[in-house]
Design goal:
This protein has eight helices and no strands. It is mostly helical and about 190 residues long. The radius of gyration is 17 Å and the shape is globular.
């Protein structure tokens, strides 16, 4: 992996973070992002996946260190954005992109404890998104009364703890609370990671 390619990957992730400040035209939900933010997030995640497929078969280990440092210098924002599009808009394409990214990170995690932690966080968000999509599909077949229907595009102001407590994802209450605190931006409730 050359320096320019690594910089482009980091740049796309940082662009997603910067574009996160642009208000969405789709609503005020914390899961709605501007089109620029979504595009930059998809480009970042796709770029990492392509780089891993391209370089993982090489014998030289220098590129593995470069790719791992590239992961570590990039914000987590693109994955959060994809999570939001899956939950808010039931995006199967973004769920698939998340799954490929988790597999990429699983392969890269063996070379760095920092990437292993990133893999764990991304896998947790992927499992939540996958569980949500499965529940959303099941609801479509059940046809609940209109008064009880959940509108995933109108989650602004929802209590994330209550919302995530209703989902039995096998994560345990503590992990669900950690994820909800991360989404709402409450750093005092974030877990201490050694």
């Amino acid at each position: 992996m050359d320096m320019i390619e690594g910089i482009e990957l980091v740049l796309q992730s940082h662009l997603a973070l910067i574009y996160r400040t642009i208000p969405s035209t789709r609503g005020n939900s914390p899961l709605h992002f501007s089109d620029e933010c979504v595009a930059a997030s998809r480009a970042a995640i796709e770029g990492y996946n392509v780089a891993w497929r391209k370089y993982r078969i090489r014998e030289d280990t220098t590129w593995k260190r470069v790719l791992n440092w590239t992961y570590l210098f990039s914000p987590f924002t693109p994955f959060i954005v994809l999570f939001g599009t899956v939950v808010a808009f039931r995006s199967e394409a973004d769920l698939t992109l998340m799954e490929i990214s988790v597999e990429t990170l699983r392969s890269a995690a063996q070379y760095s404890s920092g990437v292993a932690k990133l893999h764990h966080a991304c896998e947790t968000f992927f499992n939540m998104a996958k569980a949500y999509m499965a529940q959303a599909k099941a609801r479509l077949h059940q046809q609940p009364p209109a008064t009880q229907a959940f509108d995933p595009t109108n989650v602004y102001g929802q209590d994330w703890d209550a919302m995530l407590d209703d989902w039995d994802l096998g994560l345990g209450v503590a992990n669900a609370r950690e994820m909800s605190s991360f989404l709402t931006g409450n750093p005092s409730a974030w877990p201490n990671i050694p």
